[in-house]
Automatic annotation (TrEMBL):
GO CC annotations, alphabetized: plasma membrane
Organism from which the protein derives: Streptomyces himalayensis subsp. himalayensis
Phylogenetic classification of the source organism: Bacteria, Bacillati, Actinomycetota, Actinomycetes, Kitasatosporales
Membrane-topology descriptor: Multi-pass membrane protein
Protein name, per record: Lipopolysaccharide biosynthesis protein
UniProt entry tagged with the keyword Transferase: no
Transmembrane spans: 35-55, 67-91, 103-123, 143-162, 174-192, 198-217, 238-262, 274-297, 309-330, 350-369, 381-399, 405-426, 438-460, 466-488
InterPro entries with a match to the protein in the record: Poly_Biosynth_Transport
Cellular localisation: Cell membrane
Domain of life per record: Bacteria
Similarity annotation: Belongs to the polysaccharide synthase family.
Amino acid sequence: MTDGKPYVSDVALADSVSARRASPARLTSTAADGVRWTLLGAVASFVVQVPYTAVMSRLLTPADFGLVGLAMFMLRFVIYFAQSGLSLAVVQRPVLEVRHVRAALAVGIATGVGMFAVCWFVTPFGVRVVNGPGELVGVCRILALTFVISAIGSTAVGLLRRDMRYKSLALTEFGSYLFGYCGIGLTSALAGSGVWSLVYAGVGQSVVMTAASIALVRHDPRPLFSLCAMREMASISTQVSCVGFLEFLTTSGETFVIGRYAGMEILGYYNRAWFMAVLPLHQVATAVNKVLFSAFSRIQAEHARLKSAYVDSLAMTTLLFLFMAATIAACSRNAVQVLLGEGWEKTADLVPPLAFLGTLNVVTYFPAATAAAMGRVWQKAVIEILHLAALVAGVGFAIASESGIHGLVIALLMCRLVQHVAYVLWMGRVIPGSVRHVVVSYMEASLVALMVGLCVLAVGHAADGIVPATAALAAQLLTAALLAGVLLRYGKLLKGIRVVHQRALVPTVFTTIPRSVTTHRKEG
């Protein structure tokens, strides 16, 4: 196969699967299967993270988590450019040739090595800016190795996503997490490595993820350092990277502020609250978003299908994430006591507002993914600049008023609301008629979340002081699970539930049999 020929994956080569996937029924089936696998991977990772976090929180100190959190914040200043949005560029490009794949690999290697070198020399200055301890320099430099490792594998990951091989991706991501964090990280922590156990875990996960992705795709391993081909791949990836950098500033700026003005210990409390409140939402949203971006990219020129997919995805995901946020907020006290143990009480106060902040954050993924799939990247940048301006003003007011970390979280919540409203209104112009459907879905999801939160909170209060925190938390989670089952079975008046059933995203046990069908069976 020469460089000028279109890239054809092993999946597409068999019976022209990529052609069949272009049909509405095939694309819906493939996307639904992808959502199931990515959600399964996200849930499996979270199930493993719970005991992992419980153990690590007892082996390490809040300052250790704060140190790594600050290091990741500093590194994310360059991580978007190190990866250059190559995975998304590979997925979004309408026609992909072999030379584009090789050029993407070349861009990844060049930017990864370049950003690692920049990080190595600039880190000491950055540590002084954030007022961090001297140990932060070494932590940042070792973690920067992931730039090179991930950049090399980003092309392979993009090809897997382009072919919608989400079962392979889910298994690879889960396996790399097990090896990196539960294997290397936990072993290092037990050996007394302290904060370095978190560093080794991150590097180990990147190595396994990159190696497995390349082994699954087996694309041409020769990088093509051709300026023309590299420019073609870098055009969209550079736009994605710039917008991603703006998104990073608006989502992670609080890490700098807390670390700079409140210290490593408070940052550690915030970091653990973020893990409990936002990470579950983020993992599920990222899983769904990966599939939807690939699907949206395939139908970017079919406006009717794109509108239906956009409205349906928002209805489904808003209901899901507000349900999750209400449950997380209501369980915060018992969850902190069970998972983190003694000494983490300050974290419990931060979990409820961060849960709803996280919901606004992840629900925004889907209009943003739709815009990116349509190639409207610079319009996204305008919204992110507006969000950044609101964030600077809000954080500045919180600092000036000395309202503490709780005032900062409230400011972040309001700024995220501004961003989300801007996205919905803009998408209403891009996809006419979508705003009304979105508002109805939001109202339904908010009402459900309120009812679920009150029920779960009532169970927690009833169990308080009567049974251990572990039993109380189990009762709250069981209540939420039962409510979810009832909602899936009988909640078809809600648009989000109708979408879930129409897209065949739930087991048949939650599907009620229409009366006409049962009558027909009796007559037969």
